[in-house]
Every structure is written in C-alpha cells, then in structure tokens.
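Table S5 (text form). Sequence records supplied for joint modeling of the four-component complex.
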Amino acid sequence: MKNTSEIDRDSFEPAYSQLANILRHQIAAGKFREGGRLPSEAQLCKRYGVSSMTVRRSINILLDQGIVSTIRGKGTFVKSLKIDDVTFGLKEFSDLFKEDVSVKLLEVRIVSADAEIGKQLEIDVDTKTIYIRRLLSNNSTPVLYHQEYLIYDPCNPIVESEMEAISLKGLFTGGEGTTLKGGELIIEAIKLNKNESQLLECMPSEPAFRLTHVFKGFDDKPVSWGWFICRGKDLCFRTSIGVL
Amino acid sequence: MKNTSEIDRDSFEPAYSQLANILRHQIAAGKFREGGRLPSEAQLCKRYGVSSMTVRRSINILLDQGIVSTIRGKGTFVKSLKIDDVTFGLKEFSDLFKEDVSVKLLEVRIVSADAEIGKQLEIDVDTKTIYIRRLLSNNSTPVLYHQEYLIYDPCNPIVESEMEAISLKGLFTGGEGTTLKGGELIIEAIKLNKNESQLLECMPSEPAFRLTHVFKGFDDKPVSWGWFICRGKDLCFRTSIGVL
DNA sequence: AAGTGGTCTAGACCACTAT
DNA sequence: TAGTGGTCTAGACCACTTT
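The corresponding structure-token record, covering 488 residues in total, follows.
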C-alpha cells in the first residue's frame, strides 16, 4: 500500500506537488478544524524533510486553489467556502464540437457596418465587413449556431488566419500561430428566436446560451465580433468548490 | 516616468511579479511573434539580474495564466488562444446581492424526501428534510429566488451554520468557520415557470439562469441541495482571454 | 525576542532536445 | 556536448504579530 503521509523522493511527482496533496487530503479529512490552522512552514520543513522553498510552493498551490489563506506573522488557515472563489471552465462548451463535428457554412457575404457593428469592431459606420453564419452539428444533430462579423481588409492576412482561429483548427485545437492578442467573452441566457430555433431544430422560445466574443489583434483593434448560440438542453457548466 | 523594462528592487512588488508583468507586456506588444519563442531562462537571468528560481516563478505565472507553454529542452513559447483555457467566475452573480440586499423568507417547513431529494442528499425516501424558500431583493427589486433542501438533524449543529453559510454572512462574505468541506455547482439556462416569474416580477417563459448547488460536510455527506434562479436580463458572465 | 509568512539567491542536479 | 526547461536546497534577509 502506498504511503500517503510521506514524500516519496523516487516518485515522478515532484515533492512540492506531493506535499500539496498531502496537506489537501489532511484538510479534507478535517484534521485542522480546531481554528483551521496548519502547521507553520518551519514545522512542515522538519516534518517532511524539505526546504522552505518547497513548502512555500506547496502552500502557494493551496493558496490559489482557494483552499487556504495566509496571514503574515500569524499562520496559514483553512478557508471556508466562498462563492467568489468559484471558477467555471468552458470545457463543456468546447466538448460540444470535439468529435464528429461538421461545420456547415450557411452564408458568407460582405455587409456594411451598422451602428452596432461599428461600435463592436471600432470602425466607421458603412465600412465593409465580412458576415459569416455557420451551423455546427454533432453526429448530424445541430448543436451550435454561430454568427460573426470580421474586419474586411484584403491586404491583411489576419482575416484568413482568424477564420481558422474561430473554427476548429485554431481556437479549439490550438496551435502556435500567434495572430490574435486576446478577446472578451460574455455568457448570457436568452430565448431562441424563430430563425435560431429552426436551425437548431427545436421549439421557438426555448432557453439557450449565447456566448459572445470580440477578438483583438496585436494592434489592439477588434478583428471579429460574433456569438455562438446553443440550446439550454445541450449545455450546462459544472464545477466544484472546496476540497471534495 | 516609470521604467517598465527593468526590475525595481526597491519596489513593494516582488521581482517575480515584476518580471512576469514585463514579459506579459512584451508578449502583448507582439515582441516574440517570430516563432513565439521567449528568451531562455538563463538569458532572462542575466538580462534582468535575478536568479533562476525567480525567473521560473515568473514563467510559472504566465504558464497558469495560459499565456505561454513550455517544452522541455526546447523553450518557452507564446500560446495561441484556446477556448479551453477560458475561465469565468461568479463575481457578477455575487454582485447581485452585495449591497442593499434584503432576504425575505417565503417559506420554511419540514418535508419528506421524495426520490429526487433522496438522491441528491443521499438519504432514504421519506426522511424528513428542511425546505426553505427565499426571495432576495436589491433595492426592493426581486433579483434572486432561492430554494433548498437541508438535512434535518436536531442533534447536528451543521444545519444552523449551513443556513448562515447559504445566506450572506457565510458563503458570500466568508469567515473562518470551517463546517463545509465543499460542494458542486451547475449553471443552466432555463425558462421561468409561472411561479418563478411571478416572484421575480416578470413575464413567464422568460430566459433565466439556474445555479444549482450541493454542499457537503466533512463526513462527505450532502447537507444541502438547492438552486438560485435569476432572470437572464439581470445577469451575464464576462471574462477575457489572452494578454489584453 | 521569538515565531510567523514571504522573497531571493547561487548553485547543484536531472530530463530532454538539438547538433 | 551544449542548451533547454524543471526541481530542490540551505540559508540569508525582510515584514509582521505575539508574548
């Protein structure tokens, strides 16, 4: 049986990680509930035979996992649950189009920017943009409807690479082509309109998620504004809090 | 003018943090776009006059910010955007009841567990539970409807402290009372039913978020199962990706 | 003064990749 | 062999809190 209360120097798992796990399991087992105070770093050094830097690294892991908090001169304490520490990932979202996904291009055309498009892409009204509509299906079942407006600039190759980035190869499977600096995302709960519900093959006014994105290039200017829509039934976000 | 390309040893900001910021700004400025490779750690040590441990710490920050990736024996590279790296928190949610919030207890009663309650709280059907309904209002406008089922155990003080934890004092403002081990959260997009829309003073079938929670004690047994409901109009989640 | 968290170093050692 | 990321140490130093 594996010893889970000592650090195995022959393990492939580094000492700082092992110690973080040991401490986390002890917290989960309720070992420090009297005041919630962990042994001091010096004590942990002696107890587990590691240097102070290694102990600190372990504590830092628990720290940014939101499991403990530290007070200089006082000690390290088990944190109670705080909703502000909770984070969700977009794994469930990207899982929607991981395998057997097919992308159907519904429409590509040049459109002149209206007030909203101009605001989002930070361009003048009536400037030409590329408007794209896509339907993503998983095993021939439509799961995602995507619309976006792209900056139209024939001289700038960022458009083509961005089109990849938005589709599977770029944004979702990764790669080292560094053409986008960053972006902002918004998640909303909406009701499907008639058009959307037809495309996603369900009843109108069904609840749905909308994930809106604005991506920017290294010149800090927007290159893409768009949104994914998926049925509420096809997606939910899960996470956990604490030391379960 | 502040020098942003050297480490200030007299600053209150530690060297590892300063270096991480320097590198992040250089990445944001597009400095490493040829191949996206950062200087080696040894080069960074010399350039900025810090030890290898300090450089590593800086790189680690960028690493878990999802900004760079490292390959052993090859180098450190600027990562392209990946949707899987995106995370969002519940700040916007907890903001809903930060100030001027009032909690109206709509109902508290003992109910016998049905199949679903029994499954969620891991108790036998017909076991008694405490059922609570609350309406949270901000400036006399209802924003959140909360329902939950609590384990009923007169001998166990966890119930009272958990009731605090779920309300403002515990889960949302924090504290060091360590009575809950952890929990699981789910975010869904739903349609308001008649009752919910009446309470939240809006039209039925409006889109809404449901945040479901199951909290567990240190014995690993559920102590609470419930959900918050809020109108889609009152809430959206925002986050960013990359080095904006 | 003693104990706490927190930063930092100079160098050793290892694993991997290029050449 | 030389360069890369990655772990670890033993101890110095600092800021803060408690006694």
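Note: The longest helix of chain A spans residues 15-28.
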